[in-house]
Amino acid sequence: MLELEWIASKHAGRVRSQDARAPKYTMADKRPSDSKINSDLLAPVNHPGWGWYATVVVSGLVVLAAVGALGYQFTLGLGVWGINRPVFWALDITNFVFWIGISHAGTLISAILRVTGAEWRRPVTRCAEAITVFALMIGAMFPIIHLGRPWFFYWLVPYPNERGLWPNFRSPLAWDFFAINTYLLGSIIYLYLPLIPDLALLRDKSRGALRRIYGVFSLGWRGTQLQWDRLERAVRVMAVVIIPVAVSVHTIVSWDFAMTIRPMWHSTMFGPYFVAGAIFSGIAALILAMAIIRRVFHLEEYLRPIHFNNLGLLLLTMSLIWFYFTFGEYLTSWYGNEPEEMAVFNSKISGPYAPLFWGTVVCCFAIPAPMLAIKRFRTIKGTMIASALVVIGMWFERFLIIVPTLTHPRFTFNWGSYKPTWVELTLTAGTFGYFVLLYAIFTRLFPIIAVWEYKEGLPLGEHGEPTIVGTPDVEYESA
Amino acid sequence: MTEERKSNKPRWAMVIDLDRCTGCEACVVACRVENNIPTVGPEEAAKGRSINWIRIERYFEGEFPDLKVKFMPVLCQHCEEAPCEPVCPVYATYHTDEGLNAQVYNRCVGTRYCANNCPYTVRFFNFFDPKWDAPLDKALNPEVSVRTRGVMEKCTFCIQRIRKGEEKAKDEGREVRDGDVVPACVQTCTTKAMYFGNIADPESEVSRLSKSNRASRLLEDLGTKPKVIYLNKGD
Amino acid sequence: MKRREFIILSGVGATSASLLSACGHPEEKLIPAFIPDEEFVPGIDYWKASTCGMCPAGCGIIVRTREHKANKIEGNPFHPVNRGALCARGQAGLEVLYNPDRIKGPMKRVGERGDGKWEEISWDEGIKMLADKLREVDPTAYNDQALFVTTDSRGVTAHVGHRLMEACRKGAYVVWPLFNEVGAETSYSTGYRSATVFDLANSTYLISFGARFLETWHSPVMYSQAYGEFRGSSGKTRGRFIHVEPRMSMTAANADEWLAPTPGTEYLVALGLAQVIVRENLYKSPASAAFGNELGEYAPENTAAITDIPTEKFIRLAREFAKAERPLAIGALPANAMPAVTLLNTLVDNLNKKGGVLLPSRHNEYYGPLKMLAPRDSFMELSHTKFAEARKMHAWRVMMIHRFNPVFATPAIREEILTIPFIASFSTFMDETTELADLVLPDHSDLERWDLKSSYPTSGGMVVSVTQPVIELQCNTRQTADVLLALARDLGGEAAAALPYESAEEIVKKGAADFAAHWGQPDAETAWSELAERGFAAAVEEFRANTYATKDQLNTTLLSGLQLKAALEEDPDYPLTALIYEQLWQGDGSFANLPALQELPDPMTSAMWGAWVEINPQTAQSLGLKDGDLVDVQTRTGAVRLPALLYPGIRPNVVAIPFGQGHLAYGRYANQRGANPASLFPPSQSGPHLESTSRARVVKAAGRGELTRFGTELQEQMEKRR
Hints:
The complex is a heterotrimer of chains A (479), B (235) and C (722).
Chain A: H1 2-11, H2 34-46, H3 50-76, H4 91-102, H5 106-115, H6 125-145, H7 172-192, H8 196-205, H9 208-217, H10 225-258, H11 270-296, H12 305-336, H13 339-349, H14 354-366, H15 368-373, H16 380-407, H17 422-445, H18 451-456
Chain B: E1 12-17, H1 26-34, H2 42-46, E2 55-61, E3 68-74, H3 84-87, E4 93-95, E5 101-103, H4 113-116, E6 124-125, E7 152-153, H5 159-171, H6 184-188, E8 194-198, H7 205-210, E9 215-216, E10 228-231
Parallel strand pairs in B: 1-10
Antiparallel strand pairs in B: 1-8, 2-3, 4-5, 6-7, 9-10
Chain C: H1 3-22, E1 46-51, E2 60-66, E3 69-75, H2 88-91, H3 94-97, E4 107-109, E5 118-120, H4 123-136, E6 144-150, H5 156-167, E7 171-175, H6 179-186, E8 197-198, E9 205-209, H7 220-231, E10 240-244, H8 250-253, E11 257-259, H9 266-279, H10 292-296, H11 300-307, H12 311-323, E12 327-331, H13 339-347, E13 357-358, E14 380-381, H14 384-393, E15 395-402, H15 406-409, H16 414-418, E16 422-425, E17 439-440, E18 451-455, E19 462-467, H17 480-491, H18 493-498, H19 504-518, H20 524-534, E20 536-539, H21 550-553, E21 576-581, H22 595-598, E22 607-608, E23 613-615, H23 617-623, E24 629-634, E25 639-646, E26 654-658, E27 693-704, E28 708-709, H24 714-721
Parallel strand pairs in C: 6-7, 6-15, 7-14, 9-10, 9-12, 10-11, 15-16, 16-17, 21-26, 23-25
Antiparallel strand pairs in C: 1-2, 2-3, 4-5, 4-17, 8-13, 18-19, 19-20, 21-27, 22-28, 23-26, 24-25, 24-27
Helix pairs in contact in C: 4-17, 5-17, 9-12, 9-13, 19-20
């Protein structure tokens, strides 16, 4: 009902009456002026501040180091990594799974919140959607970087070619190719669509070449009713479509493991387990990103404790779900007591990987779950700490899914061990640096909080005049 | 691909008698020489990157003084239902119509997925370009391609010798028979613990031995249908 | 050109081009991408027969060549010794031929000895230099001598070298036996030394006293094949195999039952078994009863405490052995302990019987006209002790060293060798001894030279195997026998008269052809062409059951050399026993420069590229050692630092070190790898001709050692399996 009314309200000349059901506390209690909102939300674009520059320089240096490491690796071969026989995958695939997991922040959260019409989502969606696109870009690099002969990565691409060979569609890696590309494309569209009105706003507020660029990307947005209708419809369709795509992506990533016959990989619940873990780490990443943005760009009025509270509750839910899956996964292995499974199991529970394993449990469940369950700790700082732990914990969780299974092949004669080299560690640091860099650049180019979406959710103006949602500086045409 | 469906083609298989295998590793060196397998050197070997298409796995049972040892030569099992094959995204590993599990080095991009899905851990990766200090490269076998860095490799059942044996049989206008094809490891085996032949031919030695009550295959319960058959230790 | 030829040629071109492309010529790449290996058209190979030179066993080989490059060695399928098979060592033979560290040509020293400064010289100059030195030897002075030290006791070098040294009057041709000669020299202390073979294949119950016949004893490939048949071939029951050795060697690992007595007491186990057989009247030869009294002392009840083998085990094994259909005992014990093994065979009366000890009766006739291969007693045998003693008596003026590296085998000998005024080395590689030489006249590798080798297959008779060049010369080397001939010509007089040959090739061709003609070929010319193709000629004899020597052996004096005592004196400061052993893969250390063997995982420990100390996990625990910890093994003579390897197959309180690593020269693959345990043993004992034992202690050193394994750490693996 709510949704229908909401849609109906759009058709009423973009005029929105005071909606008693709109929770007041998610937004400013009093409607600030349009120009204040504009200046606040566009401040990062116009006046980034020294913090922004410092971030770009530091992350840029980390990225440069990683590019150097990558060049070194491409020149000499994968031998510069710590991988060996039988540990053929390690940090490469850990980073792949981790970043694809992080990418679930956005799309899934923003899409679910949009579809369910959660009003408090408004300042959160863009943050989340941007995370998705960048995390996905970084995650998707790894299947290429980790190849023995990365210069032949295009052999994985299905197109009629002189080699007379299509990719092997039976391989989960080929499925990955489709899933990740679909998701990346979908996520970019899903980020881009709600960006259009804000691009128009930026166009109108900028001069010269920048104005032209924003102009091109705003696709001639003028805020007409028809444009609004189309945009709304497109966003809603994308929101619905992106959810199964996102679920499928991490399911297919999990199938890279689950389709094999390796002990502790070959598991039917890996799909939902990975998706849950992905959303879990995604929310944590989102909370961290929001907290930093809030602080750096002084958006305290826009990103309020209530957002962190709500996301904290979501994080708590995911933490419980994650624990449930982990518990279920390990209990069944332990109860089944198959020697090959137990070799992997023991190495994690009590063997060389025990510190990492229990650290992960502490980071992903033992600390965040009680912390987030208690309202007193569900503050901005509290959720931030919990999120940081979860991000770290989930990275190690990915590592622990991959490496202990590989170090324990079925025949004990071939057991191995793994130690990363500086190249892998630099690349890993580089992914974080690259993410921060991309994100920082994004905030410099586009408002990180969707201006129109925020305004749309505001209560009516002080004098009861209808709030006009559109490009604010354009003359209001007709009611 | 079942054995029946391609019955007109030979199905190459190996039998290894564990009662005869002494673990002397002549096969390991013979394989290295025949198949241009590089030595990776002490530093790389310490990282677990040395390549042995065939290896002797050794298992201890019991404690001093009642200690027992089992030697088990392990090479690519050339599974009929090979787990490595479906996971390769570029068809670098695939099933030939003679039932061999082939690796086309030129196609390989090095995802290493096949190695991860091999329950026998018999696939090897070239972490760096292979290197032979001159003039050791003169000893390379011209019939076996040298693998560059970034590609997987593994036992081929000495495909070059199979080709040679088949050509010879064709020239003589007959089907292949026992003795036409002898892989390097089987050829050098000091105790004659290894046999190689066409298991589709009921008259062959491997067919006969595969029916022995000592015969078993590695990890049979995985359903990979290996074509290396082990004859268990007697006694 | 026929279509088929074209296809074959393009196949050759394509495959070799693919190799070239891998070696840095991508422009020559002809194979289009994506043609699977199985679609290549194979080229045509050329095979040439020769003889493996990696150990004295004399296995026949065939070498595959293509475009003037040898690319594979295989066993000669017709050769009666190895019947097509070849061991790991033999398979690695090409790495000797193409080794990057070979000495490229003759050199003379320019710096101080051991400085490693050399000047390339011509062969003529080198030969003249050595000839001049030999001329300086004063034939009238009692203690002025030239010395030729080698490990070759038979074959062309021995023939030429011996004659030359005799002609020099004051020259001595000296044989310094290696590991591999141990078995051959002492395995059967009576009867013919090296012609004795053991019919393992047909035996049904085999007890081996330290004879690692699958690795290093006598002829590993020949006995491995026999072992295969012993284990079961159609129509034969599975033989039972007992191995007695304090450390579980690969051979021991294959035994049905492994007995690990206190080191040095293996012979007591043999005597204990004999005592039980005699007292229970289980012997088969009637004269055996005479041993009753002499053996009383060795009753298992008396020796169990020393050997640490329970009495019940003695009794059970003695009964099994005596009652077996075709029992056989073999051993590789010190010469004075070997009678104990002989005694067991005598008791079960297996001489010249199926599955027993085979002594060929017409042994001396085998050689026919080929006298150069006959065993010669006149060779002086040298060991470190003898060397030190002899050094006092003779002022050796010139020492020539051939296929032997005494400075590695006995590091303490270095100083004594340095006192010799002139040293010429014929080594193919720059080893520790050659580093001290004044003149280096590098020998061919085994695949480039001419030689003859005799060996005794279990099928009976004798085989003469031809070593012939299979490939053109790789370096500016010259066969030592040819150098010696040139030397004789230069010296002139007696020396030249004693050696009227053109070349080693001539000697080999004539000798082999004469031998073949003697044993059934119509004429020498046909004989040679066939020989060259087959690679060997055989003198065939069926073993006949006879009673030869049985009476002689049943002599109670047989036991007089034996004493009932523990092998080593107790030493409170050194509570452990250290022993060194030879591996098939490293031999006496002369294979440490072959990467294929360095990177070959040891089958028992899975270790490669180095050396280690094997310690029983119990002992390690009591010493607080973990796998891979660096330890110092100390004896009263010396110490080595190596990583500890926790090895379940060794007696507690015994540590074992493989011999062969720890080179301080010898090329890039061998140099500075692991440690040489030879220094642990007093010079009188050490040297690779005896697998030594000594009292020792193990002290933990700081840090972790470099212990590289192909497989998993043994201990982890065992614990996890439980």
